[in-house]
Amino acid sequence: MPMVNVDPTVIDSLQNAVNSLSLQIASKPLFDTGNTGFMLLCCSLVMLMTPALAFFYGGLVGRKNVLTIMMQSFVSLCLTTVIWFTVGYSLSFSGSLASGTDFFGIVGNLDKAFLHGVTLTSAFSGNGTIPEVVFIAYQMMFAIITPALITGAFANRVSFKAYLIFLVVWLFFVYFPFTHMVWGGGLMAAWGVLDFAGGIVVHATAGFAALASVIYVGKRKVVDSGNHNIPLVAIGTGLLWFGWYGFNAGSELSVDPLTSIAFLNTDIAASFAGISWLVVSWIYEGKPKFVGLMTGAVAGLATITPCAGFVPLWSAPIIGIIAGLVCYLAVNFKNRMKWDDALDVWGVHGVGGVSGTILLGVFGSELINPIDKGGALLNGNVRFFLTQVIAVIVASAYAYVFTYIMLVLINKITPVKVTESDEVMGLDESQHGEIAYID
């Protein structure tokens, strides 16, 4: 066979190309494709929860206000995304108390404003197996739905302009700080506070902000018939429940046995809570109500949220039953106090979030997830239990007080409450010039 002469410069060029490619491959983190794909799916599920909340709330209000409350959820989907991209992510997850690079452990810095420094190869530092961009998107969905939860409390009463200001200010002074303090290496994390998926960060803060809104805004002047479309409520409940698997199971940020436990705990607690609410309401109200069943399930979902990846399976039914009973009693208490929390945000999300955070201090198990040396209260660890109790009280009290003061200040800029004539007309037409139904 004849010999083939190859130019040595060609060989050198090929070798250099191979070496360059090898260096590029070596410099890129080896992301786990399974974890990354799973987290993108969970991100989509949590995003779906905001339209689901719009359906849930939309069906519970009267016909003349359905578009208004749905728009309040959808505008958060857009506006919160803008804020998260610009500074929200950075304020929540840049810097830490331990390194002295945040603001006294309360809020992060602006190092990652406009996602500065985030590249395709940036890994999420929490586990190193998923891209940081996936973590950014996932946490953004939490930020979107949290202020939207509050809107059910002041349904039919607040102007759209005031709500937009409320949304922006509340994110900066409540949501971002507590996200950083609990999940971003801030003050509460240093205390040893645990919150698997948002009992403090999402539900307690939103629930008690809702109560402050109700107290400040006062009662509706026009009685709303409410529950204008219960099938719409059912669609919203189903989609919320579906999305909640991404909310809770996804908070493990990877696929492992804890992911499965969080998933199953979520379903079990919601189911037991729904049945508990149905039974107790049947006893006291004389008839089994479909809306009650759905409300109870949502209460169970809110209550298991901080616990989902920290408690054993046997405790999930107990947590669900407690959620159904305690949240039902909270709603009845609200009615006796004549607080016009239109869609029971405080009773379901606020009380549910507080209850779940405390129950984590009771049922949390080192056998499931390393939570604290000595486990929780059932293992005799009173310190961890008291840490959870104090943290959720502080968060709830701050959210209540700040929200009330914020509304007072917003009212000096633009009226928070709509006029009685606007209420009579309905906010869909008076605020937005649209109507949902043509008779």
Kindly report the average pLDDT value: 93
Calculate the terminal CA-CA distance, rounded to whole Å: 91 Å
CATH fold name = Ammonium transporter fold
Please give the CATH architecture. Orthogonal Bundle
Task: Specify the helix fraction band.
Answer: 55-70%
Written description of the protein model:
By secondary structure, this protein is mainly α. It has a single domain (31-432), classed as Orthogonal Bundle (Ammonium transporter fold). The protein has 15 helices and no strands. It has helices at 8-27, 33-60, 66-93, 132-150, 160-183, 187-191, 199-217, 230-248, 257-285, 290-304, 316-337, 345-363, 382-413, 420-425, 427-432. Helix 5 (160-183) packs antiparallel against helix 7. It is globular and about 85 Å long. The relative contact order is 0.13. The mean pLDDT is 93.
Please describe the topology of this protein.
Blueprint: H1 8-27, H2 33-60, H3 66-93, H4 132-150, H5 160-183, H6 187-191, H7 199-217, H8 230-248, H9 257-285, H10 290-304, H11 316-337, H12 345-363, H13 382-413, H14 420-425, H15 427-432
